[in-house]
Write a structure and sequence with these properties.
The chain is of the alpha+beta class and 617 residues long. The protein has three domains: 4-194, Vaccinia Virus protein VP39 (Rossmann fold), CATH 3.40.50.150; 204-289 and 302-310 and 327-509, 2-Layer Sandwich (BirA Bifunctional Protein, domain 2); 529-616, 2-Layer Sandwich (Alpha-Beta Plaits), CATH 3.30.70. The chain contains 14 helices and 24 strands. The chain has helices at 15-20, 36-39, 45-54, 95-109, 145-150, 239-251, 293-302, 336-343, 388-404, 430-437, 484-492, 505-508, 545-556, 594-612, and strands at residues 4-9, 26-31, 58-60, 79-85, 113-123, 154-161, 188-194, 204-210, 213-218, 257-259, 267-269, 282-283, 310-313, 329-331, 353-361, 373-384, 412-419, 443-450, 459-467, 475-483, 529-537, 560-570, 577-585, 615-616. The strands form five sheets. The protein has a seven-stranded mixed beta sheet with strand order 3-2-1-4-5-7-6. α6 crosses α9 (388-404) and α6 packs across α11 (484-492). It is elongated and about 95 Å long. The termini are far apart.
């Protein structure tokens, strides 16, 4: 393994650089903005420079931190770590000038930093503008370092105190460009790393086998990075798979378990009884490849998804709003229809616990725990009539004990089974509310962690229902549906569902195969940006708010975290209705700059006018 190359910028008296020289496996390149003659006049600088050179370090003068690639040949630009301690424009430069300095510095650093390198920036207390600063300045009066770094593709991955007293021989200098010290009490070292690239908005199509034909469909924009991710595949170490495997292992202690994941189609067709059409991702198949009526009638239970879904370029096909004719396909919103179709064929013999699992897709409003796609595990058990209550209790007890055994993370889970009364709809999360549309529910399964979350009863992570519609009058089917993504979030302390889908490898590195751990975010204090949009709704039409939220998800690549209705009024005389929404843009895993959020807002304005038929104000 080669030497670790460390670049130090803006050194004053070179005492910080001197403290690093001689470290095993490290090659130090120390620089300053002044000439050698000017820099050597600072107290102790000549001694530190001599020590650096004697240890084999490089010392370079007159280096502009905003043009770093100009000072190093291409083969010497791969620095593993860049330090910039207490940057400042000099004299009485204000926060705006210093933000500009940082912006240019970060863009320059991106050109000479190794792919997995780090940028360390030490700032005086309050300058950074993050919650780590105590006391924290008002945002407009800070250097806004996280937002500035995002403009160059960096995220804040760590922040810790800058303890000057622990750095041997270090003496701060350079107050207002003079050879004077300054206060570093409460100073913070901000550690930045590269972000994964922004989501590509190129339209994608998906090819699958449906019946005897190959068909293709355009992937909805909100789902372009969520198809065929393979979280539940045998070689996956994703926490969602770990939760499923642990549940199955626990259930197998009480029941024979049969996994029946194969042959489950991504597509359903026809009308889904009781479900609001605006909650469904409707799909238009290529006309020349549309299966026959007979194939469609068997497609629900028999369609087979290729083990490797093929993505290719596609063009957008607009599906008529609200279309749900018998021949119209849609992405499966639940695994329950699969089980119900197989139920009619007697596929669930008594005594064996059958398990179906896979991703399901539902349009929903933008909230912290509302997921347009998640992994469902559906447990089906045929029991003798009259014994369903005791079997449900055994099933829930087993699920509870299994989940309790998973709290290696330090977050103790608490499970609460609540009987459905029909009056709890307003208290339910989107997962449970949608499940209620699929048919009568007997029990809700709530879960919270200790210390408890914001919801007194926790989050609904599952539902239990029964069915008496069997050919055999002696048997009753018990269905238990669990949201694996919510379970993984609660067990691992993941506050944002989007993190489960991040392409950043730093997420999965925290979860070795078969282990659940407390998640530590690699993107701290991500900046947020607020934009408003106002428009006129066509007279006499009902505005589809779920479609608006779904469009915002797709246009932003899931970087909209909040959509709030700010104002609504009806124009006298014309009857036209105006709506004003406030959108908050924020990423949990990628760099999002002020400019990037503004560009998303502009794209959203164009698309809501084009796709939703509104008139912008």
């Amino acid at each position: 393994m080669g030497l670790r190359r460390v670049l130090l910028l803006g050194e004053g008296n070179f005492s910080f650089a001197a403290s690093l020289c001689g470290a095993r496996g490290t090659h130090v390149v120390a620089t300053c903005y002044e000439s050698e003659e000017d820099a050597s006049r600072r107290g102790g600088a000549a001694r530190s420079i001599r020590r650096l050179r004697e240890s084999g370090a490089e010392v370079v003068f007159s280096v502009d931190c905003t043009k770093l690639k100009d000072y190093f040949s291409p083969e010497k630009r791969e620095f593993d770590c860049i330090y910039f301690n207490f940057p400042h424009c000099g004299r009485k430069a204000g926060v705006v000038k210093n933000r500009e300095l940082l912006a240019h510095f970060f863009r320059s650093s991106a050109e000479v930093l190794a792919e997995e390198g780090e940028v360390h920036v030490a700032l005086c207390n309050g300058q950074g503008g993050t919650p780590a600063d105590q006391p924290r300045r008002e945002w407009h009066n800070s250097w806004q370092i996280v937002a500035v770094a995002a403009g160059a593709g960096f995220i804040l991955s760590n922040v810790h105190p800058f303890n000057a007293e622990t750095i041997h021989g270090y003496k701060c200098t350079g107050y207002r460009s003079q050879d004077k010290s300054f206060c570093v009490e409460g100073a913070l070292n901000h550690i930045f790393t590269r972000s994964t690239p922004p989501l590509c908005f190129t339209p994608q199509s998906c090819k699958i086998q449906l019946g005897s034909q190959k068909v293709s469909f355009q992937v909805p924009q909100a789902l372009v990075d969520k198809m065929n991710r393979g979280f539940l595949e045998p070689n996956s170490n994703h926490p969602v798979r770990t939760v499923k495997e642990e549940l199955m292992a626990g259930l197998s202690q009480a029941f024979p378990v049969q996994d029946t994941d194969c042959c489950l189609s991504l597509l359903h067709h026809g009308h889904l009884e009781g479900v609001c059409p605006s909650s469904i991702f409707w799909i238009a198949l290529s006309p020349e490849e549309t299966p026959s009526t007979e194939e469609m009638s068997h497609g629900l239970a028999r369609a087979v998804l290729f083990s490797h879904v093929d993505f290719c370029q596609g063009t957008e096909k607009k599906v008529p709003e609200g279309c749900h004719s018998p021949g119209q396909f849609y992405l499966r919103p639940s695994l329950l229809p699969h089980a119900q179709a197989r139920m009619q064929e007697g596929a669930f013999p008594a005594g064996t616990l059958h398990v179906l699992s896979g991703p399901v897709f539902r349009k929903c409003r933008v909230t912290p725990h509302s997921m347009p796609v998640f992994h469902e595990v559906l447990i089906v058990l045929a029991v003798n009539r009259g014994a369903e209550s005791s079997c449900v209790q055994v099933l829930v007890n087993n699920i509870t004990s299994t989940i309790h055994s998973l709290h290696q993370t330090g977050l103790k889970p608490n499970i609460n089974l609540q009987e459905a009364t029909g009056s709890e709809t307003t208290e339910l999360n989107d997962f449970a509310a949608f499940e209620a549309q699929l048919g009568k529910i007997q029990y809700f399964i709530f879960m919270e962690t200790d210390p408890p979350g914001s919801c007194e009863k926790g989050s609904c992570v599952g539902v239990i229902r029964t069915s008496h519609e069997l050919a055999s009058s002696e048997l009753v089917l018990v269905f238990a549906s669990l949201n694996l993504d919510l379970l993984a979030m609660l067990l691992c302390g993941i506050s944002d569902w989007r993190m489960l889908w991040t392409p950043d490898t730093r997420f999965l590195r925290q979860f070795p195969r078969g282990q659940l751990r407390l998640f530590k975010s690699f993107s701290l204090y991500p900046p947020s940006y607020v934009h408003d949009v106002s428009f006129w709704v066509p007279e006499g039409e009902q505005f589809d708010e779920v479609a608006f939220h779904t469009l915002a998800r797709g246009v932003s690549g899931e970087m909209v975290v909040s959509i709030q209705l700010r104002d609504s009024f009806q124009q006298a005389g014309t009857g036209r209705r105006s709506l004003c929404y406030r959108l908050t843009f924020q990423s949990c895993d990628r760099a999002l700059s002020c400019r990037g959020a503004a560009e998303m807002q502009l794209r959203l304005r164009e698309e809501i006018q084009r796709q939703l038929g509104v008139t912008l104000r």
